Amino acid sequence: MEVIIGDTDATKVSKRWKSHYFNDGVWRNTAFGSSEDTYKNLLACNDLRHEIDAAIGNKSWTHLLCDGCNEYVDRAVSISDGDNSTYLCENCLKTALAMIRGKT
């Protein structure tokens, strides 16, 4: 297990964005429009989650999706078997602990 924290580094996010959407010299569009325009907007962002989220149009590049509650969170625990990982937020971990202790 390890704690994973969502990304707040606009430079890292923009590099990941480009590697995902720019292939063989061509920008692939997203469901929200031009991935190249989004990339340019990311380059102008400060290292603030809300700015990066606004440039992309969602939180999926800066937050983690908790597999317990399906909410985007800033940090989660990753539980992995080597092939698959499950992310759980603090609230879901507290709920799980209460269940184990028979308090729910």
Q: Secondary structure elements and their pairing?
A:
Layout: E1 2-5, H1 10-21, E2 22-23, E3 26-27, H2 35-43, H3 49-56, E4 64-65, E5 72-73, E6 75-80, E7 85-88, H4 90-100
Antiparallel strand pairs: 1-6, 2-3, 4-5, 6-7
Helix pairs in contact: 1-2, 2-3
- Mean pLDDT comes to 92
Category from helices, strands and their pairing = alpha+beta
Termini separation: 24 Å
- Please estimate the helix content: 25-40%
SSE sequence, one letter per element: EHEEHHEEEEH
Rg, rounded, reads 17 Å
Strand residue content: 15-25%
Please state how the strands of the largest beta sheet are arranged side by side. 1-6-7
Largest sheet: 3 strands, antiparallel
The number of helical segments is: 4
How many beta strands in the DSSP annotation? Answer: 7
Count of folded domains: 2
The poorly predicted ranges are none
Shape: elongated
Which terms summarize this structure?
104 residues, 4 helices, two-stranded antiparallel sheet, single chain, 21% strand, 3-stranded antiparallel beta sheet, alpha+beta, 2 domains
Descriptive notes:
The chain is α+β, with helices and mostly antiparallel strands and 104 residues long. It has two domains: 7-62, no CATH class; 63-104, no CATH class. Helix content is 38%, strand content 21%. The chain is built from four helices and seven strands, in the order E-H-E-E-H-H-E-E-E-E-H. Strands 1-6-7 form a three-stranded antiparallel beta sheet. Strands 2-3 form a two-stranded antiparallel sheet. A hairpin with a 4-residue loop joins strand 6 (75-80) and strand 7. Helix 1 runs antiparallel to helix 2 (35-43) and helix 2 runs antiparallel to helix 3 (49-56). The two termini are 24 Å apart. The mean pLDDT is 92.
